[in-house]
């Protein structure tokens, strides 16, 4: 009721202040409005029945849902059509252009398709058009850009394409938002004639050419988003400095060149500036320091030079984020002292710049809110200041690849929140402190390539969350402490290039998540432990340049994930185990300079002369393609004569059989190529799956017809199918032309083939050949969570939503904590939550899943994982993904499930977010943010007061959990191990009280 009154008040205002001819118009027959509305209804599918139940002939159309009429005009005429977020499908009828008194057209957040009718441009009074978050395609009608009445036009999140018209004449326009489409061509300079414009949002398109200098004429402009386009070679026009009201300028990743204009010194109201991921040169304008309201600045990944101004902290006291990484900034570190004036600072990132000097002691005076301090890859010298110990909330300290000297300060070990410490590639001396073990939350310890000496402290085993440990390239001696082999979650251990002694114990076989073990160039001895063969996830093993002796264990054939194996320069003897020839992924093998003898195995790695290195083993034989003699030629003289005699009788029939088999094999290969019958992939993780041929998939999907198309993604299309035995399946066919598609298919095969859980989608088969690759998955008849949350013809009650989210939580908990390796999904969102016939949730789409990864900020991703709105904020600053990143995505997913709002909703365009919106309303204004369908559908289950109380308690607890999962700092987020029982408890209490269970 309140919302309806507000809309009516807005319409009244528009009518009051509309152009004079509206008030002076003579009465008209309103039958054209009725006919237009009925035509609009006829072109739409209305799954919720809103129009069918309300837009009826026995009711005045002024009382129809979403239709608003002028209260002063007789007969009444339609002045507003507001049907937002009501799940409409179909196309917008051209008859909308007959609503000649229309001022507001709001059709956002539906499932509309087709094009934008050009008849909209005929409406002389139209002030607002909101078409955001639909599936509209085609070009935007040129006439819209010449509407004298238009004030706001928003079509963000559609599939619109083509160029914008060169001539734009919108004198009243205040907002234009076209981000996240597929628009091309240049940004029209004629935007500069729109003197009332306050917001321009054109980011995430394919615009080319230059940034028009004419934009500098729009003095009212406060927000300009033009990033994520292809403005190759374009420079930032100096006229942008004329925009004295500008608060937000985002031109990141737009292929910009040239200098940042000195005129930016005029942007006194600037609060957020993003110019990252470009090719900008020159220095940072000193005038930019005049923008005293600045709280966010990103200049990373450019070619900027000069010094970082020493007064930035005094100039920008509200600064929270400073990212100057990967430029050519030089000079000293005085700016660090200046930053002590910024009491809300969270991020200091200046990596990859030739900054010189000594870190000042004033580091200890930085705000305790600081989370990230990253100045790696620079020229910093001197000692590490003890003041770092005062930064009690620091999560990541990265000073790697500098010229630091001295010992590790003891105050560092007071940083109880620290998750990652990167001090590698410096000149740090002394010992590895015993107090390092006090930091139980550490995820990454990188101290390689220093001059550390002494032993590795046994306390390292107390860092229970440690996953990445590198002490390589130091002068460490003594033996490896047994406590290291108790780190069950460790993924990478690199202790190479030290002088460590002793043996490799059997306990190493307990590190089930281990991906990399490098102990090369030490003084280790004894046997190679047979327990290594149990490390199924091990991908890199280097034991070279030690003193290991005796035979290579046959058990190494159990390293089914191994890609790199180096046992060279030891004293190993005996035969090469035949099991090594069966390792499916082994691409690099070095057994050189040992004392190996006998037959070289055949198959896989030994078949490729460019891969294995066996030199320095004089008694090996049997692989001519590798340069070794046949084993018979190495045998004694008498045996040789007998062999020759026997060969005269044996060789002819054997040769004939070989020739016959070869001919048959070639014929078979030729036949298979001709019929293109695709067989099951050889991936061992899929070897136990059902074999399904290409032709069976053709039959199952009716030759992959559009009628069976379930959906399309960046790398694939998914079809519904029915196999020969009647089993319903979903066939995910790879688009082989998409960049990265093969990698995505291989990753998904590996991930799905190794994972088994009730709430994960089940892989049935994989069909693969050179020109066709497909995954065959179990079919989910109830679609995905996206369709249920944002479609008007479907609705989930609160119990169903809780069940689904518990299922998702259980799946992610399994990936993070219950699988032998840690698996990161990296793209949790509603469309990746599939629902079976019983509405049980199954998490899907492991196309970018990361195997063998872990918590913290330890894994670099070459491309952005996940989907905008669900990606954890720390990824944009460090490029590192983690388990806590999945937790963040889960939290956003939970909030979306409860509110019915996408994180990409237009309401969050101005720098807000779904989480911030929820946080501001919680707990007092919860009724304003919760999906209204949840509050209405539960009211009939029990006496009203009891139901409302239980629903309110459930929603309050669930929202609180969603906020806890999506905290800004990864350290403050709960783990999935804790999320599951909390969510199960919330569901249990709700079911018990509200449903009477």
From TrEMBL:
GO molecular function, one term: ATP binding
Subcellular location: Cell membrane
InterPro entries hit by this protein: Kinase-like_dom_sf, Leu-rich_rpt, Leu-rich_rpt_typical-subtyp, LRR_dom_sf, LRR_N_plant-typ, Plant_receptor-like_S/T_kinase, Prot_kinase_dom, Protein_kinase_ATP_BS
Keyword Coiled coil included in the entry's annotation: no
Domain Protein kinase: 704-983
Transmembrane segments: 649-668
Residues bound to ATP: 732
Xref: PROSITE patterns: PROTEIN_KINASE_ATP (PS00107), PROTEIN_KINASE_DOM (PS50011), PROTEIN_KINASE_ST (PS00108)
Keyword annotations of the record: ATP-binding, Cell membrane, Glycoprotein, Kinase, Leucine-rich repeat, Membrane, Nucleotide-binding, Phosphoprotein, Receptor, Repeat, Serine/threonine-protein kinase, Signal, Transferase, Transmembrane, Transmembrane helix
Reactions it catalyzes: L-seryl-[protein] + ATP = O-phospho-L-seryl-[protein] + ADP + H(+); L-threonyl-[protein] + ATP = O-phospho-L-threonyl-[protein] + ADP + H(+)
EC category: transferase
EC number in record: 2.7.11.1
Topology in the lipid bilayer: Single-pass membrane protein
Leader sequence segment: 1-25
Protein name per the record: non-specific serine/threonine protein kinase
Phylogenetic classification of the source organism: Eukaryota, Viridiplantae, Streptophyta, Embryophyta, Tracheophyta
